[in-house]
Amino acid sequence: MSNATALIHSIPVDPLTGSISVPIYQTSTFVQEEPGVNKGFDYARTNNPTRATLEKIIAELENGSTGIAFASGLAAIDAVVKLLRSGDEILAVDDIYGGAFRLFTHIYGKFGIKVNYTDTADIANVIDALTPETKLIWLETPTNPTLKISGIQAIAKIAQQNDILLCVDNTFASPALQQPLNLGADIVVHSATKYLGGHSDLIAGVVVTKNEELGAQIKFIQNASGAILSPHDSWLVIRGIETLHLRVQQHSRNAQVVAEFLEQHPAIDKVYYPGLKSHLNHDIAAKQQSAFGGIVSFTLKVDTAEAAKNVVCSTRLFKLAESLGGVKSLLCHPATMTHKSIPAEQRQAAGVADSLVRLSVGLEEVEDLIDDIQQALAKINAHKLKPITSNI
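User: That's the sequence. What structure does it adopt?
Assistant: C-alpha cells below.
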C-alpha cells in the first residue's frame, strides 16, 4: 500500500456514529463514573479525543511512537527545549528560523542554556562545535530561508556516539517528503501551520518522538505548561493532512520550475533550492527526501533591502505575508520580516542577505507564477544590475 493511501485510511471513521469526518469534541471536561474512573479522558487540557486522533496520525506519518500537538510551532519547540537543564548547551543550525533564535537566545539564555550556532551542512562543523555540555543538536533541513541541507543520518550517528538528542525541524519538507526518525533523529517538530494544515487558516505545532519514554516526557510538559492545540484546530490539521501528499508533490513540481527559471534570470545572483544540482548538498537532499519541497529563495544582483522590497511589493499572485505552505503563493523579505530578530551581522554570516527573497510556491498554474515573478523583477532598474559576491 502506498504512503498516500495508508495516510488517508489512517484517519478513522467515528465508531459511535460512522462519521467519515473526525468529530470535534468541543468540551472542557468529561463526566466520570466515579473518581478516577473514566473513558480515557478527564480534562481537555490533559487530553481530548480530537487532538488525540491528530497526535496518533502525526506519529504514524513520521513513523514515531508518540505525537504531541501544541498551540503553535514555537510552543512545540519550547516543549523540546524544556527537556534541558541550566548549563546545558544546544548546537543549532546557523540559518535558523527567527522565532526559534528569539526563543533560544532571549528566553532560554536567561536560564543558563547556551546555544552554539554553526553551519551544519558541513559535518566537520558539527564535530568541531560539540562540547561536553552539548545535550541537544537542533537541525532544520532544509533550513529557513536559505534551504541548507544537512545530512541527518551522519549527524544522528555523531549524536548517538555522544549521548546527545537530535531534533529535526521537518516543517519545510513535511513527512510526505522526509522522515527524520527513520534516519536516526530522536525528535521531529513541525509548525503544523504550514504544510500539514496547508490552507493558511490555523496556528499549530507538533512534536513526534522516536521512543515512548521521550514522548511521555514531552506529553508531561504539554500538560504541565498548557500550550495545547484546540479541538477545532486539531480537526483543521487532520483535514489538511488528508491532502498532504497530493499538495506537497504539486508544490514541489511548481517550485522546481520556478527555481530553474530564476537560475537563468539576469537580475538574480543566487537561487536556493535543493532540487537544483547547483545547490550545496543536492545529492544528500536527493537521498533523504522524495522531492524537494515548495520553498525557493533567491538573492538579487542589486544586493540591497530596497531592491528586494521593490520586488516583494510588486507581485500580484504572490502575496506579501509571513508564513508559508498554503495553497496560495506567498513571498517575504526575511531580513525585515521572519528573521529581523537575528542581528544583521549574524544573519548575513548565515547567508540571509539583505536582498534575499523567500517564495512559498503555491498550487496555481506555474506559468502564471513565472509571469508574476518576471513582471516584478522587471521593476528593478536594469542599469543597477551588477555582479556581487555571494554570501555563500
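Residues 385-392 have pLDDT under 50 and may be disordered.
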